[in-house]
Design a protein that fits this description.
This protein is α/β, with parallel strands linked by helices. It is built from 18 helices and 12 strands. The protein has an 8-stranded parallel β-sheet. A two-stranded antiparallel ribbon has the order 1-12. Strands 2-3 form a two-stranded antiparallel ribbon. Strand 8, helix 15 (281-289) and strand 9 form a beta-alpha-beta unit. FMN binds at residues 107-109, 136, 158, 186, 276, 298, 354-355.
């Protein structure tokens, strides 16, 4: 028989611990987020549908994005036990400079549309946590203003080559003058991808106040207030911004980009040169032969060619082909710190994230970006401890494999 009794008040006291009251709304929202998926859900509630879909969506049937995520889902780790993992070193040399975490903030366009704090907030977080930040040609804050907002951050500039090469040359010079140490040339965008969510939502640059967006805006008044009471939302490096993103790409960027342009940039740019959008071993060899310091295996987050190669699956063969001459980076589909650990174990020097920090930005501005990094960093440390690995540099292909489909 179970003997029952009334608990003493002293026994109840330790159990009666109400959660602390968080008076700040942003703090309350972010306190509920334990994963990037949680930040995504908050972001979806906080922003108009067209804005969220611009960030969340991909091209055509979104197969490239889904396959990239599926590849990370198929990762299987091979842990070792009885190792001292009381301390874990998450630092990593990226193009000769130590970063405190093995990832960087990748370039994202129109960042102030997601949250009015925009690129300045992201760069400030990069400075605080000690990782690189790449500013996009399609950014909404100038090269100089980002440098002023985060003077101690390691800053990279992502370049699309314009039909008018003089404009590109000017951007490159401004980046050099402002202390950006790495130039990242994107080569997978001869034309804009078919981003159907944007088409269905009628998204234009800047956002148009149609009946549909007005109704949606009524459900997100804070977003519209921030939009209308801060600097006009425009691309900082583009003079003409009317129309959809795809129309801007097709009107401004050069579909005649060739290896000659890579050679030109290598001879012009004094810092490190990265080629973003590599999707084959042969192309990796070509750009490394031309002097690239790193290649970023990327299908543009699934936003360009649908049914493109899966970047994670390209890491081992590209590392075998060029890894002794250039660094190999990877992006697309990264939503968990374990994804970053897997990418490094397969041989990547670093990973780049985009949507993961943008969900944080939409959920809570700069503090949301900080929360995204906190989540990813915690997941990286925990994953490595459970794998029996004490530092990022110890990760090897023997620690990881991709399970077969089916």
């Amino acid at each position: 028989m179970v003997q029952r009794r009334l608990p003493r008040p002293s026994e109840l006291a330790p159990l009666l611990r109400p959660a602390p009251i968080r008076w700040n709304g942003t703090d309350r929202r972010l306190a509920k987020a334990a994963s990037i998926a949680d930040l995504r859900r908050i972001a979806r509630r906080r922003t108009p549908r067209a804005v969220f879909d611009y960030t969340d969506g991909a091209a055509d049937g979104e197969l490239s994005l889904n396959r990239a995520r599926d590849a990370f889902n198929r990762v299987e780790f091979s842990p070792t036990v009885l190792r001292d993992v009381s301390e874990v070193d998450t630092g990593r040399d990226i193009l000769g400079v130590r970063a405190n975490l093995p990832f960087a903030f990748g370039p994202t366009g129109f960042t102030r549309m997601m949250n009015h704090e925009g690129e300045r907030a992201v760069a400030a977080v990069a400075e605080r946590v000690g990782i690189p930040y790449a500013l996009s040609t399609m950014g909404t804050t100038t090269i100089e203003d980002v440098a002023a907002a985060a003077p101690g951050a390691r800053r990279w500039f992502q370049l699309y080559l314009w039909r008018d090469r003089s404009v590109a040359k000017d951007l490159v010079q401004r980046a050099a003058d402002s202390g950006y140490d790495t130039l990242m040339l994107t080569v997978d965008t001869p034309v804009g991808g078919a981003r159907l969510r944007d088409v269905h939502n009628g998204l234009t640059i800047p956002p148009a106040l149609s009946l549909k967006t007005f109704v949606d805006g009524a459900m997100h008044p804070h977003w519209w207030v921030n939009l209308l009471t801060t600097d006009p939302l425009t691309f900082a490096s583009l003079e003409s911004t009317d129309g959809t993103v795809a129309e801007l790409i097709n009107r401004v960027f050069d579909p005649a980009l060739t290896m000659d342009d890579v050679d030109w940039l290598r001879g012009t740019w004094p810092g490190k040169l990265v080629i973003k959008g590599i999707q084959s071993v042969d192309d990796a060899r070509r750009v490394v032969d031309a002097g690239a310091d790193a290649v970023l295996l990327s299908n543009h987050g699934g936003r360009q060619l649908d049914r493109a190669p899966v970047p994670l699956e390209l890491v081992p063969p590209v590392v075998d082909a060029v890894g002794d001459r250039a660094e190999v980076w990877v992006d697309t589909g990264i939503t968990h710190g374990a994804d970053i650990v897997a990418a490094i174990a397969f041989g990547a020097r670093a990973a780049l994230i985009g949507r993961a920090y943008l969900y944080g930005l939409m959920a809570g501005g700069q503090r949301g970006v900080e929360k995204a990094v906190e989540i990813l960093a915690g997941e990286i440390v925990r994953t490595m401890q459970l794998m029996g690995v004490g530092s990022v540099d110890e990760l090897r292909p023997s620690h990881v494999r991709l399970r077969s489909i089916g």
